[in-house]
Amino acid sequence: MPDAPADAPAPVSRAHKLQLAAVMAAATVLYVAHSLLRYRNFEAKGYDLGIFDQAVRQYALFKAPIVPVKGVDFNLLGDHFHPIIALFAPLYWIWPDPRMLNFGMIALLVVTAIPVYLFSRRYLGHRGGLLTAAALLLWWPFQAMVNWDFHEVAFAVPLMAWIVFAFDRSRYWLVVGLSAVLLLVREDMGVTLIAVGIVLAFHRQWGKAVLLAAAGVAGYLVVTSVVVPHFAPPEAMSYWQYTALGPTAGAAIAFILSHPLRSIALLFDHQLKVLLWLMTFVPLALLPFLSPYVILVAPSLLSRLFNDRLNTWAPVYQYDAMLAPVLIMASVHVLSKIIARTGKVRLRVGAPAYLLVLALVCTLFIHAVFPLGRTLTGRNWVMPETAKAQARAVAMIPNGVCVEAADTAVPHLVQRTYVGLNGDIGDDLSSWMIIDFNVDELGGWDPLSPQEALERGKKLGFKVVSKDDHGIWVLHRDIPISPVCSNYLPYD
After folding, report:
1. Cβ(448)–Cβ(436) under 8 Å?
2. Which of 15, 36, 197, 344 is paired with 151 by a 20 to 30 Å CA distance?
3. What is the rounded distance in angstroms from the CA atom of residue 139 to the CA atom of residue 281?
4. Per-domain boundaries in the chain
5. R_g over Cα of the chain
6. Per-residue model confidence (pLDDT) at position 389
């Protein structure tokens, strides 16, 4: 259980609130600018922005979340269970545009600074808390999420921070309530509820711990065994991607229990996994490992590292954003004890200042991991010629048609067409096609190469309408517009 400081901080003054608001406003401006530039430069993708736009757009129309980017008549609840994204449907009543999802995601990230500030202020004072909140907002997991557009895990980011805050204030029923909401974020959050239950046990809240762990197990089993299969198409792929541990969940648990050393070795058997460990914990001086709050992030982190898919190991995706506030708050928790035992009160400001300076320096010079540096330094302010070519191609597509498009063209077509990725909406629906020859793969779970897409199009009777100098081709075939396409959205 975290030790409360000897002197509780005074109520947050108006000046302190304004300073926190200024930090949050600065982060918001940077996030929004970067997000809008990415969209304009055709860096946003069908995976995931196009997928979630189509789902939330259908929710806004009071329809089932049918997502052509995933396939014909594909209900997104048969892919992952994230009904919480329907909360963003009202945004589409204001402005039905995929950028609204990113604005909502940015709001979720920025407001996470509030619980982090309040938690850190209790132990480090106002300046330490303010610097900690600023460091979080500039830290690489948040930058990665902004750079990859909207994802359902965005809802978990502030929830996880408030859960730690509630633990710190001994508001255990609030912990239970916030944790229950996680079940609406994604099906695997049931395992995170078990982790929260374990931390509740550390706080000797035995009944609440058992209740939450049972809810986590039940929620996970019901969603993965009943709900998702109910909505999934018959040919849906299996989401069991932990074959290094065994062919089933039961076999995986047995393997971990009977071969603990081999299981641990799997967590470090690739350079990307090692990099993720280093980037997650070394800048925080390994302090989170000394706090029970690290247990809260264990299910998410370990499930990614045990996963077969290489892209879950890379520290450039959305998944780390929900870990960042917990790990930073865990570091503050441990740091406060170090300060209490050593008397080194300068660490209250020095430690978070170091993290903020590190984040700023990396943002300016290491854009591969701190991508918002491209906006701060102006590298992405000029629209590339390939993006201009894609804009011309998108403008050629009529409203209300079925179109197959390259990944980066999809978000620019979701407002007015039934759009899927090349090769993913069958052979009979699409009358238009956009192919990007600047990439090796055109996007999707089993992506086509540009040449494969072109050959497929020619076999289906498509003719080349535009062959742009910058590698963007537009193809068309003269077939009747299917009601599947024309009835998908209310077109003007």
Report:
1. no
2. 197
3. 12
4. 14-44+98-376, 385-486
5. 24
6. 96
* 153 vs 301: CA distance, rounded Å: 13
Classify each residue of 304-323 as buried b or exposed e, where b means 16 or more C-beta atoms within 10 Å of its C-beta. bbbbeeeebbbbbbbbbbbb
Cβ neighbourhood burial of 485 (10 Å; 0-12, 13-18, 19+): buried
CB 367 within 8 A of CB 379: yes
What pLDDT score was predicted for residue 6?
43
Other residues' Cβ atoms within 10 Å of the Cβ of residue 143: 27
**347-365 vs 140-147: helix axis angle to the nearest 10?**
40
Q: Which residues of 270-279 are buried (b: 16+ CB within 10 A; e: fewer)?
A: eeebeebbee
Scan for tokens 């502030």, then name that residue.
158
Question: Look-up: residue for tokens 């969603």?
Answer: 223
Residue ranges, the chain, pLDDT below 70: 1-9, 235-239, 491-492
CA 39 to chain CA centroid, Å, is 17
pLDDT in tens, 19-60: 999 999 999 999 999 999 999 999 999 988 999 999 999 999
Looking at residue 238, its pLDDT comes to 61
Closest CA to 111 of 173, 28, 11, 183: 28
Q: Buried (b) or exposed (e) across 189-208, using 16+ Cβ within 10 A? A: bbbbbbbbbbbbbebebeeb
Cα distance between residue 165 and residue 163, in whole Å: 5
- The verdict on whether omega for the bond into residue 48 sits within 30 degrees of 0, i.e. cis, is yes
